[in-house]
Amino acid sequence: MTAILYPVAPDAEAALAAPKGRAAREREAETLAAEAVVFVTEAVGPAYASRAAALQAHAARLEDVTAEDRYCRLAETLEGAPPKAVKPTYQEGRRWPAPPAQAPRTVWRLQVSYWRPVTAAAAVESAQARQARRKAKEPLDSQALRDLTRQPLRPVRPQQPLDIGLFETRLPENPNIVVPDE
After folding, report:
1. Cα–Cα distances in Å, from 125 out to 129, 135, 137, 148, 162?
2. Using an 8 Å Cβ cutoff, are 124 and 148 in contact?
3. Cα 100 to the chain's mean position, in Å?
4. This model's pTM is above 0.85
5. Cα separation of 56 and 49, whole Å?
């Protein structure tokens, strides 16, 4: 089985138009980019009302491509803001209220998976996401919020080592002695 060769590019548009090269693995992508890379999947291009319309517009990238060229796919997403959360009602033997009469509209977009060099990635503050949002003088744009949510979770302070194991307990008469628990 052959591996998918993902483009190495600074953004999704460049990944489709003129990538630096293509690599299946991170090490190969780092060699092509001459720096560290991250694997990214982004939506690109216009939104289409139906899957058939999106498939027709991007047929060259989606149909009859070799196994190495399957780095694009169609994805269905909500149009506009997601629906607001509803509170449980607990009335008349029902927990949740009746669903809305009209389902939210969805659109189809082309998604491109590629290797992005770290220097091309948006600079995200090293603070926690909640602190970064509070410290921002202006509301953050959607791309900055997306980058904040996708950064790895970091502890507020270093975790302290465990002093006893999961199946161990301290003796009530002498808390300095740890014995196995049954």
Report:
1. 8, 10, 14, 8, 31
2. yes
3. 28
4. no
5. 12
